[in-house]
Structures
1.
Amino acid sequence: MKKPKQKASVEGTVGKIATAIIARLRNSEYTSMIDLKSDVAAALENFNNKPFQKREGSRREIFEVNERITLHPLPAFPYEYAVWEYGRVIGSDFHVTYQTCKYSVPYRFVGKTVDLKITDSMIEIYCGHERISSHKRFPSYVRNRYDTYLEDIPERFQATEWNELTLRQWAASIGKQTLTVTDRIFKSYRTSEQGINPAMSVLKLSKKYSSERLEMACELAIEHVSVPRYSHLKAILASGQDVEYKENKKQENGSSSAGFVRGAAYYGGDGHAE
């Protein structure tokens, strides 16, 4: 096993520096850290410039001649502690999921297995030893968000028969509330392509439950959820909450429109009740 050859020398120098600075400042009194730091820096500079006793030069001269040229600049970004997660599979939507949020990769990597390097601020995605994408990480409190690079989206997604316009037209044909839900779904994603499947899932409920019931379910859902989705609307329709909601609305409208009616007999005489 190899042993360090210069460890004792380095540790000895540290001890000499500490002794020299403490000795120089031993009779001084300080009331602020600024003054103390200033005198420590001056004492250290004096120690480095002091000539050697048994050879020529000083520590400062040795540094300038032999050591400075070997130094490299500090990294442009400070070091961040990272954790790794392995064996994530890229889905057909060309995104990888981390803590419910999704991050895009080039479409050619769909189906590939990737590893994630995760820091407090970034997520880097590696396929083998190649970094294929990097994203700013969503804060831990953010849920179900997409970070998608436009260059990652395949051309065929942009030429699909179903797009945002056609789905909005379908929603409008069902009703105002369904269109509102569809609008909110698309607005919740960064790109319209990401909203196609969620919006399609909602609109297909009209085929199973009828357009009228979906419209009523959307109206009910909007009262409780800012962006209703398939799971919300499916639960309402499957349990019949939309039907109950419709009946309650009818009763409320009926009771509010009904007033006190005296009847024809009241107006048959002199305008006074018998």
Note: The first strand starts at residue 83 and ends at 89.
2.
Amino acid sequence: MTTNRRLGATDLHIAPLVLGGNVFGWTADRDASFAVLDAFVAGGGTMIDTADVYSAWVPGHQGGESESMIGDWLKSSGKRNDVLIATKVGMLPGEGGEKLAPARIAAACDASLKRLGVETIDLYFAHQDDDAVAQEDALAAFAKLIDAGKVRALGASNFHARRLKSAHDAAVAHGLPHYQVLQPEYNLVSRHKFEGELQDYCITNNVGVVPYYGLASGFLTGKYRSKDDLGQSVRGGRMGDLLEGKGADVLAAMDAVAADTGASLAQIALAWLAAQPGVTAPIASATSVKQVEDLLGAITLELSADQLDRLSAAGA
């Protein structure tokens, strides 16, 4: 079994794969969601990532569907002590305003706790930066949640290096808690948003990193290899640009590693991420037990230095 990894400077230790909750209550109904969650925990998974805004983009949904589904599963399975729950505030407007307004943070946290049916959120993310709110004011709002026992640790998602650093400086200056975890977009075909200054900052300051879009919306599973494949799903339209860019080279390198290891392309994509400097665990979602069992294979897949180098070079 692979050892759990410490998430940055937090006291949280997680398996090197996080289950994405965006699909629960959307493309995975109750039965499918419960089956996926059961299989993830049975396979050694430890953290589930969701957000209050999942899945407000679906006609008829208002946000909170994913949290409610996870809450129902926690209640019926009795597995609250077996998992860590990460959720987010900042994209779903509502009581208290929008984004990172202090009153919004307070109200959104209470709403998330209620939907999840838990007393404490293990990791609470600012889902996006908010230039309209002073960083010390947002952090002070988060500090109140920590002091009240409603939140254990803080993270930031979609923050640039400059803003992550200025948030850290504000926390030091005002004696407030820090963002100890970052959730950026990062995968074999989308590396510019993390590599460089942001990655260096996280490594230097022991900020744990849990990247999303680890499979590039399914592209890195090998599902889209020609223009004929683009009609396979609602996401197909985005894949044409990847195929015309470095995508084909990356898939070819992944195919070679798959031939060496017998691993699936999804496992290879996630294992590459988990091996990158500063990364604690990639996030990936699944809508079936078969998919989640495939993803879990990434936890024990160790790629050689040569394999990692070849994959990196293909997408450089």
Note: The mean pLDDT is 95.
3.
Amino acid sequence: MNTINETNFLFPKQKSVYKGKVREVYNINDELLVMIASDRLSAFDVVLPRQIPFKGQILNQIATKMMNDTADVVPNWLHATPDENVAIGHLCEPFKVEMVIRGYMSGHAAREYKAGKRVLCGVRMAEGMKENDKFPTPIITPSTKAENGDHDEDITREEILSKNVVSEEDYIILENYTRTLFQRGTEIAASRGLILVDTKYEFGKTKDGKIVLIDEIHTPDSSRYFYEEGYAVRQEKGETQKQLSKEFVRQWLIENDFQGKEGQQIPEMSDEKVIEISNRYIELYEQITGEKFIKANTENVLSRINENVVNFLNG
């Protein structure tokens, strides 16, 4: 199966290209952005050596569906999706923070809690909580938006404002949008028998100064989901929750002594492991969207993307 590792397109009126951990973004005439979802896999802020078949298509199609399903409550950058791996949106100036919101004490929050910390990004967590317990109210724990290859870092609301990373006026909007999107995401998840545990949102400003949602939303790379059925019983018994997210990749890496720390070796990923991860992503897609996943033709995947994007831009 052909996968997308790197792209080197030259589209009409292209001005520049930015290559992130898993997405490549082409600037078209300082008006539109062509965002291509590759099949690269990142964990602990490290891009792993093997690509995962259909991962880019899955993330792009989930994000597109979720953008459409939340556009009535929060405006977003999306303009068109001319290809299974491509989203085209309006050029925005991104805010240099990721808005992370957590409804449950899981993942990074749980790891920090186990290490004895009771304050995360300036937000106090109650004593006596167990991993995967629900917070009384969802908490916002922002992180810095790292350059490619660097680690995102936790940051407090106070630091964001005092360092003028975001103005107070804009930050209030980011917080409101974050809570609104999380509420809608929670409702969508519940309709699929899922719990939206935590997620991150990224925002930008359009040329006319409007704040909009950008990048991906409610995908398994940016979000963590639990199965609602059996959650309470498993929690009561102290059992591991059945979840839909990229956490299974992180756990495999942890089991193989890798957490992205200096000096650690990325474990070898076999063909079987690659296919297993691909199948898990397909399961995630079908559970999160409630739709059957249809694999795109990947025989000449780069030619297909180029043709579809060029036809759209010329059209």
Note: The first helix runs from residue 55 to 70.
